[in-house]
Amino acid sequence: METAAAVPICVLLLTSAEDLDCTPGFQQKVFHIDQPAEFIEDQAILNLTFSDCKGNDKLHYEVSSPYFRVNTDGSLVALRNITAVGKTLFVHARTPHAEDMAELVIVGGKDIQGSLQDIFKFARTSPVPRQKRSIVVSPILIPENQRQPFPRDVGKVVDSDRPEGSKFRLTGKGVDQEPKGIFRINENTGSVSVTRNLDRETIATYQLFVETVDVNGRTLEGPVPLEVIVIDQNDNRPIFREGPYIGHVMEGSPTGTTVMRMTAFDADDPATDNALLRYNIRQQTPDKPSPNMFYIDPEKGDIVTVVSPALLDREVSGKTHHFPFTRIEHGFHTREDFQATVEEGAMGVIVNLTVEDKDDPTTGAWRAAYTIINGNPGQSFEIHTNPQTNEGMLSVVKPLDYEISAFHTLLIKVENEDPLVPDVSYGSSSTATVHITVLDANESPVFYPDPMMVTKQENISVGSVLLTVNATDPDSLQRQTIRYSVYKDPAGWLNINPINGTVDTTALLDRESPFVHNSVYTALFLATDSGNPPATGTGTLLITLEDVNDNAPFIYPTVAEVCDDAKNLSVVILGATDKDLHPNTDPFKFEIHKQTVPDKVWKISKINNTHALVSLLQNLNKANYHLPIMVTDSGKPPMTNITDLRVQVCSCKNSKVDCNAAGAPHFSAATALLLSLFSLARKFTKL
C-alpha cells in the first residue's frame, strides 16, 4: 500500500430558479377610512394584508399613531376610545425579507399638530418625514425583474400643505442622472412610477430627491430624500469561481477526515435566502468500492470521508477494480422516469409514483416518504404519500404558466420513515425523475390599463373619438387576433371599432343624466380572442364629464298666498336651482318679465345669490294673479327660464283665511290685452 493517493471527485450544486409570481409588500397600499364620531377600543377598523413571499416569519407591524396597533391577523384596532387622530396614519410592516408602508387616509379627519412627526425610522433608510416638513415620503420597495406592463405605480409622496398651483419634482440617479428615465413622478398627485424592470445586482438602491416647486420652477420645499430599495429575487445561479478542485486524502485515513472545502458564489442578496447555498454530491467516479465514499456538508461545503479506513485504498479505488466487495443496498425499486401532462392553470394530482418495498407493510420500514429535491423552485408542486398504497401522489398546488415554461423536470427522492440499519444505504433506484408537460390553455385577453379613464366635455358632437382601448393576449406563443365589443353601455352613448378598439360617441354625452354618478359615466367592454374556444376579457372605461351650461335654472315655490289687507306686503321668498355645476349656476338674476308701467304693483328684490323676495307695492283685490318670473344663471353664455308664479290674494278676516272666493285668475294689463287681441283674431278667422 502506498502512502498517499489523490481521489477525483465531481461536485455539482443543486440550484433554485426564481419565483417571481409573488410581489412582496402590502396588497393594498392606500386605504380611505371615514372619520367616525369615535374610534372604539379593540374594535377592528380594517384588515391589512402583507406578504414577504417567504411565509411572513417574524412579521412586525408599526403604526404612526401610538393610539393604534395592528394585530397578528392584520386587523387595525384602537388601543383606547379616541375621537381625533389627524388626516393620515401610516402602517409599516417588516420581516427579515421585506418591508413596506401602507397609508390610511382619514376622510373628514382634522389636522393635529405634530401628528405626522412620529413616523417610523427604518433601519436601512432615512426617517419618514422629518420635523418642520409637510412633504411626507416613505421608502419605496420594488422587486427586481418585474414583468410588463410598465410604467407602474410604486409609491406616493404626500404634501399636506402644498400651495395651490405648485408641483412635485423628482431628481437623482435614475431620473435626471444616468441611468436616466427609470423613475418619474406625477407632478400633481405625487404618484411615483417605475418605467422598466430593475436588476438588484446592477443597482441595489436608488437615492432620489423630492421637492415642490412653483409655476416658475423655483423650489418651495425640499429636496427631501426618497430611497428606492430593489428587492432581491432568486435570479442568479450559484457558480464555482475556481476549478477543477483537487483534494488529497491519505490512504487509511479515519472516517470523517476532511478532504477539502468547496466554495460557491451567488450574486443574489446575501441577507436573504436567495443567496443561501446548499451543497450536494451528485456523482462519484469511480463508484467502487462504494458509491458513497464521501459526504459534503450541505451548508459549509466541506467534503469528508464516510467509509471505513480500509476502503480508502488506492489500489482498490484507482485503476484496479477487483476488490471483492458486495454492496448492501436498500430494497426500494422505483421507476426511474415518469411522464405527466397538466393543463395550464389546472391544479390537483397529476401522477402517482409507485415503489416496491419488501419490508413489513405494517411498519415504518415499509412506509415511504417522498421529497422533491430538485426542479421545484416556485413551490408549484407537492408530493404526499398515499397511506394505503404507499404511492407518491404528485400534485400541482400553484397554477403553471405555459408561456413561462412549457416543461418541468422534477427529481424526487424516496426514503423510509424509519432509518436504515447500519451498512445499508439507499441506491440509485430510490430516486425518480418526473417529466411534466404543460398544455397551453386559451387565456382571456387583458385590458391595460384597467380601468381606463378619459375626461371629456358633455355635449361633444356625435362621432367624437374618446380613446383607443388596448387589450393583450397572455397567450404570447399563439398568433391570435382580438376583437372588441361593447358589454355594458347604460345610456347607449358609445360605439367601439371591433378591430382597432377606437371608442367614439353615438349620442350626446349628458353629465346630468341619471346614468352619470358624480360626473363619471361607467361603461364595460369585451376583448375576445380567436382561440378555440374563444376567451373573453372585460375592461372598464370611466368617462369624467366636464360641465357645460346646458340647463336653465328654475324657481321654487311656484304658488304663494297673501292677504288683501296685509300690512306687510311681502309675498314670498323665491329660491332658484340649476342642474349644472359652478360657475354655470349661481349667482342667479331674478326679474319680473315684461311688467308694464301702469301695472307695476309687484317688486322683486335680491336676498342673496340664490334667493329673492317678491313683494307688493300696494294691496290688491281678492283674485288669482299670474306673475311671470325670469331667472338667469351665470354661465357663459347664460341660460334663462321664465316661470309663472301663481299668487292668491285671499280675504283674511277674524283670523280666517278665505281663498276660495278669489274668483277667476287675474292677469296683468299687458296679459289681458294679449288675450283680447287673440280672441278678436279668432273671430275674424271664423268669418
From TrEMBL:
Topology within the bilayer: Lipid-anchor; GPI-anchor
Record has Plastid as a keyword: no
Signal peptide: 1-17
InterPro entries listed in its UniProt record: Cadherin, Cadherin-like_dom, Cadherin-like_sf, Cadherin_CS, Cadherin_pro_dom
GO cellular component: cytoplasm; plasma membrane; side of membrane
GO biological process, one term: homophilic cell adhesion via plasma membrane adhesion molecules
PROSITE patterns reported for this sequence: CADHERIN_1 (PS00232), CADHERIN_2 (PS50268)
Transmembrane segments: none
Keyword vocabulary terms for this entry: Calcium, Cell adhesion, Cell membrane, Cleavage on pair of basic residues, Cytoplasm, Glycoprotein, GPI-anchor, Lipoprotein, Membrane, Metal-binding, Repeat, Signal
Domain Cadherin: 142-240, 241-323, 334-447, 448-555, 554-667
Recorded GO MF terms: calcium ion binding
Record localization: Cell membrane; Cytoplasm
Reported function: Cadherins are calcium-dependent cell adhesion proteins. They preferentially interact with themselves in a homophilic manner in connecting cells; cadherins may thus contribute to the sorting of heterogeneous cell types. May act as a negative regulator of neural cell growth.
Subunit structure: By contrast to classical cadherins, homodimerization in trans is not mediated by cadherin EC1 domain strand-swapping, but instead through a homophilic adhesive interface which joins two elongated EC1-EC2 domains through a region near their Ca2+-binding sites to form a tetrahedral, X-like shape.
Protein name, as recorded: Cadherin-13
Name of encoding gene: CDH13
